[in-house]
Every structure is written in structure tokens, then in C-alpha cells.
Amino acid sequence: MAQKSKSVEDFPVELLSGGKPVAEKLVRRGMLDLERELTKQFNEERDLEVEATGHMSQVRDALLTKAISTDQMATGVRGLRALDYRLSKAKLNLPKIPSQKRSIRTGSIVANVVPPFTYQWTWSATSGNPSLSLAANRTTGQMSFNIWNASRDASGSARAAIGIYFRPVTESGFLRLWSNPAFNYSWWTYCAFASAHSDAFIGLYVGRYTLAGGYDATLISQQINLWNDDSWWSGAGSHNGSNSGYPLFSQFNVDRSHWYALWVWCGGRASAVGWDSPFWGSGAASNLAVTIPSMTWELF
Asked: Quick one: what percent of the chain has pLDDT higher than 70?
């Protein structure tokens, strides 16, 4: 009996991407710096919201009294002005990137990787007990988050990622990475004389590791905004939508003395003060559900 010929789908992609993947626990260890930075960012954003809300409450309370208090309103405006001025003094740091070597390359190798993928990762932070659910599934290539302030003074932030292992078969090279995830989304901000915030992003993330397993550098941290709303008086309303194939792309240098974790990731945040008062309040949510059909890399 003639032996059945093997198709391209039967070819083990691992032979081209550096062999057996490194254990997920090592990859997660490398994400600890990112998790600490995300937690610091969440706390700083929450502190600013609380401070700004305190100043806004002075203006709101002055407007809602029977006899409008101009002194109280002026106090609130002065606080917002001082916050605005303080933020204007902050300077952006220039991005730090790993050094690269000059090289000349010819030809390329392309691999299209489909589920099941190699790694999954999630992170979240909350303040005030919002409703938050979060998932990432390497087997199906699906990830999602749902954040709602749960009608209380609360804030939540979430990240989810699905990734693959890669180590070049050549001494050095240039890697192109792309994916076309599909997603559904819904979000809203509603407010009456109070603040509400909702945002979400999708993108690629690439971490570089030493052969000993230590985290070495972040090569790509791509965050493409899908929406980003800050409302104070009436809100932006409710929004729903979908995308059947959102294009993500990046390119960077790689070498044989490192291995790499290549991720598609997403994240979002929602924050509002709730509805405890009969006269003012706010609600917000950020919901995203993503399916990754494949991740494709091309090594030059």
C-alpha cells in the first residue's frame, strides 16, 4: 500500500521556531516587571481620578444647592487649575530599547501558527470592588475581559495575552510578526455631575529572554486604542461593535543567543463613582472578547 504523503500542515513548525518551547512558568516570571509597572500605573491613574473628583465635587455641590455658592465653586475650579498645572510639569521619558547589530540578510522563512498556542497570561487590578471577569485560553486562542464599576465608586483594569515561543534557527535575523484577531466589544459611560472613564486596546507584545531563562528586555509593547473616553457631565452613552480581522503588525531584530515570547494582548479600564446620591453619579464599563485565528512570523 502506498504511503500517504504528508502535507505542509503536518510539518512540525517547532523545528523552525527553535525547538521545544520553554516552560510557561519562566515566561510568567519574565512578565513580573510588566505586572508591577501595570499595578503602579493603575494606582497612579486611580489617585488622579480621586483627586480630580474631589475638586469636581466642589463645583457640583455648589451648582446643586438652592443658592449657588460661588465661593465653593471657585474653590473647586482652583483645585482643578492646580492639578492641570501640576500635570503640565511632568515630562515624558524617551523610550529605552535594546541595542542592535548591523547585518545583511537574504531570503526568509515564514510560519503560520494556529491554535493551540503556547502561552497564556492575565493580570488585573481593582479599587472599590468593581465587577471584573478575565480569561485567556491558549487552546482556543480566545481571551476576554469584562469590567463594570457595579454601581459603586470603583475602578478596574485588566490585561490578557496569548503567545507562542520563538528562537531563530539562524545566528541573527529580522523577524516580522503579524496577526488578524477578531473581536466584539461593548462599553459605556453615563454620568450626572460626576466622572466616568472607559478604555480598551489591542496589540502585540514581545519579550526577550536569555538562554538561562532570565527576562532580558521588552522589544515590542504595542497598544492600539479601540476607544478612550473621559466624561464628567453627561457621559458618552453606550457603544457596541465588532471587527472580523483587525490587522496587527510589528518587526524587530532577533538572535540565536536569546529566545522570545511573542504575544497578542489586549486590555482595558473602567472607572466611575456609582449612584449613591439621588442627584448625581456615574457608571462605566469596558468589555472586549477576542479570538486569534493565527499568529504569523517571517524570519529574514
From this structure: 83
> What is the per-residue pLDDT across 37-52, written as a single tens digit (0 to 9) for each?
889 988 988 888 888 7
Domains contained in the chain, number: 1
Query: Is residue 25, in this structure, part of any structural domain at all?
Result: no
Average pLDDT, the chain: 85
Domain membership of residue 265 (yes or no) is yes
Burial (CB count within 10 angstroms: exposed 0-12, middle 13-18, buried 19+), residue 68:
exposed
Structural domain boundaries enclosing 189: 106-299
Query: Can you read off the three cell numbers belonging to residue 266?
Result: 489586549
The amino acid occupying position 292 is I
Rounded alpha-carbon distances, angstroms, from residue 135 to 82, 140, 144, 148, 228: 40, 11, 5, 16, 22
- Provide the pLDDT confidence category of residue 57 given band limits of 50, 70 and 90: confident
**In this structure, which long-range contacts are made by residues 89-92, counting pairs with CB atoms below 8 Å and at least 24 apart in sequence?**
none
User: How many angstroms separate the CA atoms of 231 and 198, rounded?
Assistant: 9
Q: Which helix (H) or strand (E) covers residue 39, if one does? A: helix 32-64
pLDDT tens-digit readout, 152-194: 999 999 999 999 999 998 899 999 999 999 999 999 999 888 8
CB contact at 8 A, 118 and 19: no
**90 domain residue, yes or no:** no
**Has residue 210 got a pLDDT over 70?**
yes
pLDDT surpassing 50 at residue 215 = yes
Q: Are the beta carbons of 148 and 128 closer than 8 angstroms?
A: no
Q: 85 is written with which cell numbers?
A: 498645572
- What is the per-residue burial (b if ≥16 Cβ within 10 Å, else e) of 10-36? eeeeeebbbeebbebebbeebbeebee
Domain membership of residue 5 (yes or no) is: no
CA distance 43 to 125: 9
- Per the CB < 8 A criterion, the answer to whether 133 and 143 are in contact is no
